[in-house]
DNA sequence: TAAAACAAATAAATCGTTTTAGCATAATTA
DNA sequence: TAATTATGCTAAAACGATTTATTTGTTTTA
């Protein structure tokens, strides 16, 4: 267990001041007019012994940790997992590491996690915020921390966010169901006051009422445990046998919905037409394939990281706050097509 | 942007030495026989002003960062995502944060990431190691770092690891196919010298040869890009029309396999019986449901974190190195049952 | 030729903690 | 009563970097 080299060791070995070493290593040799000879000598020696600066000491002094805090709802949810993956790649390429955590949409947990991130001096925050976290985010921003929200935003907090056009997405999907001839169309979604959920509900409602139909909305409490989602879902389906079609508000609910349908031996689209938010393998490979509202995950990740890097590099950029609204893509598959009777 | 309070601010405000504050805050008041009155005063003041120690300074001094580095193959793979999620939960409960990254099974990338983790002074490492990383892991261990491998291990490196009984898993699955009456059974897997892959191949081979059948093994290069997996897979299926059954070596290959079968309009199990390693929604919900080798993800995560915490708390524990081999569960579903002709 | 400017490098302060070693004063022992 | 031991607290060093302010010669300038 060899002791790690410090800058002092280098300085002593070369009989040079550590100040000089530091300047050279930080590319300030020219500016500090340190002779080319010495620069070369130092660089060579550093390479030879494989010295690496202690990033903790560096961070302590400079106040920068080169770390980004990423808070998603649940890292094991395929939507968040794929976004996390893309963000991770791009962050690393720009010299940043990621510390991540799952909030479970739990406000208190999120609060604790934010203060953990703060303690660890992360340089920037990427957050899919739960409800009730407004004050904490605001105080983060007031303290000058770069913050980018995604997947949803906080209406009264002025900060950058990236999300999709949720309202239009569900409006469009609902219209598609109506156009196909379905009339008893339900929306099943998580009970939530989060913006993306409210918009999804509104989009559905707008489409439904524009055609004079009756809105049927089933809200389910957010839960990790699938049983607690499937139970009310099962009750709902059993209790509404005259339903034509269901629009699922999230991929998780959509997946649970498919499981319940399987249990009850209901087939899409004959027994029930189906559309789910988010698109992933389960929906693509299902028989019949499930119509899905595909979010542009790559684009979301790109915007998120780019906006954050902008703010990180140029503090003044924090002033104007950008909101990016991206389009979704309704992947029409047979689960939502009126069976050609 | 209010300046953060430091321990000196607290000391000055109360007219007490910072040493004393530090002792009190670290629960060493009794040991250092500091009067109850003072302890109370300090604790109250600290709570009132909401002082939190700067963890960077703390880490610099103590050499502990309370961070665990987690390296998986790909965080967006459902197997790794769910393990990561479980590990994350348990780590946080024990006061540790997670820094994670995806290795893509790329040795050089992994090497870079290990040195990043080292730089950041993570206290412990959880790694699903790619090939060729033996030396780096060894040097980590030699430097006294607690390391736990999972999902696979490195044969010549003595360290703790958690994995499943891969050999028996594929042996058992193959036997099941044979028992069902299938005879032309292929194994499609990633080309890899990793232990878990070698074992999976061996398990398949053992079962095949024990019955005097012919082993048909298709190895595909590891790739993120699905097209590059699907292309050779498609060629293989087209080129071997007499195949009875396929055992897929990983969930990713399994998913791609299903996509190709969908394209080619092949149905399981009539056209081709199917079993995949790993069990998740895509397989459970598929029509027909896909027989899968389910890994005990919760148990894996529990062992991983427990073994690591043990080593973290008790350096001597590093000496005896544990290998935990867990059982998988073959979830038999209709994709592997000989159609009752 | 004295003053100013420059070149090349460094000493010391700093970031915010923990930890070691030590200092008064009061209480106990012998 | 002098020596010892507790008690309660603190000064200063250390962790390993960056940054500010300074030093010491050497050239230019006027």
Brief sketch in words of this structure:
The structure is a homodimer of 341-residue chains. Chain A is of the alpha/beta class and 341 residues long. Chain A has 3 domains: 7-53, Orthogonal Bundle (434 Repressor (Amino-terminal Domain)); 65-163 and 298-327, Response regulator (Rossmann fold); 166-295 and 330-336, Rossmann fold.
Which SSEs are present, and which pair or pack?
The structure is a homodimer of 341-residue chains.
Chain A: H1 7-14, H2 18-25, H3 36-49, H4 55-62, E1 67-72, H5 78-93, E2 97-102, H6 107-119, E3 124-127, H7 134-142, E4 147-150, E5 160-164, H8 166-179, E6 185-190, H9 195-210, E7 216-220, H10 227-239, E8 245-248, H11 251-263, E9 273-277, H12 281-285, E10 291-294, H13 297-313, E11 323-326, E12 329-331
Helix pairs in contact in A: 1-2, 5-13, 8-9, 10-11
The structure holds a DNA duplex (30 and 30 nucleotides).
Would you mind describing this structure in some detail?
The structure is a homodimer of 341-residue chains. With 341 residues, chain A is an alpha/beta fold. Chain A folds into three domains: 7-53, 434 Repressor (Amino-terminal Domain) (Orthogonal Bundle); 65-163 and 298-327, Rossmann fold, CATH 3.40.50.2300; 166-295 and 330-336, Response regulator (Rossmann fold, 3-Layer(aba) Sandwich). Helices cover 45% and strands 16% of the residues of chain A. The first copy, chain A, contains 13 helices and twelve strands. Chain A has helices spanning 7-14, 18-25, 36-49, 55-62, 78-93, 107-119, 134-142, 166-179, 195-210, 227-239, 251-263, 281-285, 297-313, and strands at 67-72, 97-102, 124-127, 147-150, 160-164, 185-190, 216-220, 245-248, 273-277, 291-294, 323-326, 329-331. In chain A, the strands form two sheets. In chain A, strands 2-1-3-4-5-11 form a six-stranded parallel β-sheet, sandwiched between helices. In chain A, α12 links the parallel β9 and β10 (291-294). Chain A is elongated. Chain A starts with 6 loop residues before the first helix and ends in a 10-residue tail after the last strand. At the A-B interface, α4, α5, β2, α6 and α11 of A face α4, α5, β2, α6 and α11 of B. Chain A binds a DNA duplex (30 and 30 nucleotides) through α2 and α4.
